[in-house]
Amino acid sequence: MNWIANALFALAFVLFIYGSLYIVVHLPIFPLNEVRVEGELKHVTREQVKLIASRYLQGNFFTVNLVRTRQAFEKLPWARNVSVRRRWPNRLEVMIEEHQALARWGNIALVNTHGEIFHGASDADLPVFYGPGDGVKEVAAHYGEFNALILPANMKLTEVTLTPRRSWQVTTNNGMVISLGREKMDMRLARFMQVYRKTYAGLKGDLNYVDLRYPSGFAVRSPMALAAFKPVVVNAAPKEQKLSNIKSEPLRKDEGRKAPIKKEQSKRGVKKAEIKKAKA
Questions:
Q1: How many CB atoms lie within 10 A of CB 160?
Q2: What is the largest CA-CA distance in the chain?
Q3: Alpha-carbon distance 253 to 114, whole Å?
Q4: Among 57, 50, 107, 102, which Cα is nearest to 80's?
């Protein structure tokens, strides 16, 4: 009996403490008077923060749901990471890490510097990435490597494409398309840029297309080369007219003298033939 009495007494004491704490916590004497948002914010606006605070910050300092509040801030298009914590006695601190846009993923989304896709809006001049859905991080990583190789030639990449067969192609800001293939892309591009800076960079006219998928060289296509091999159309009518004019011209003096000589030679041939017949 004593054991049962002690157990009931302990249970009653626990319930009393719990009820007291519940009442105290839910009293309006611990309101949240301040929500401080920290971080280098360039796209998250004050209006967005106020809207989330009015919708999701329910309760007082003790009862506010931190998980729900964090998830609400993470729904912002430019919010990458969010952390929420209480600060005694009446403040809530929200730390927001924004996405840093690196490029566009086609025309449907943006890619941040971590190789992650997010659906934000930006009017900045960004390069465009194309590739399969599982190749976002791979394209973002190689973009930095390729861009560093062409930077000494005062160029930058505007497009990077990864095909489903894992073949690479890049486009520079001067309109040059470079096919890199599926292996040793950095080595091929570095080798070409050495030649480009010494030769092609000083020539007039830009290269349209460069194919680096050769084991010991590369092929280029430029407007100058196309112009050099462009066929020339010749009008044949004037030549025919000149030929007809030549035929209709009268014979010159020297040409007139040649005709009698031919006749005399023919007569001598006839006389020689008659003499031979007579001897016979």
A1: 22
A2: 177
A3: 93
A4: 102
Q: By mean pLDDT, which of 59-63, 124-128, 228-232 is the weakest?
A: 228-232
177 pairs with which residues across the strands? 171, 209
Residue 275 pLDDT exceeds 50: no
What is the pLDDT, as a whole number, of residue 59? 79
- CA gap 196, 252 in Å, rounded: 63
In the chain, % of residues over pLDDT 70:
69
Written as one string, the DSSP assignment of 37-95 is EES--SS--HHHHHHHHHHH--S-TTT--HHHHHHHHHTSTTEEEEEEEEETTTEEEEE
The pLDDT value given to residue 26: 52
Contact 188, 205 (CB under 8 A): no
- Average pLDDT value over all residues in the chain: 80
60 CB-side CA count, 13 A: 13
Residue 93 phi/psi, 5° resolution?
A: -105, 130
Q: Cα 133 to the chain's mean position, in Å?
A: 15
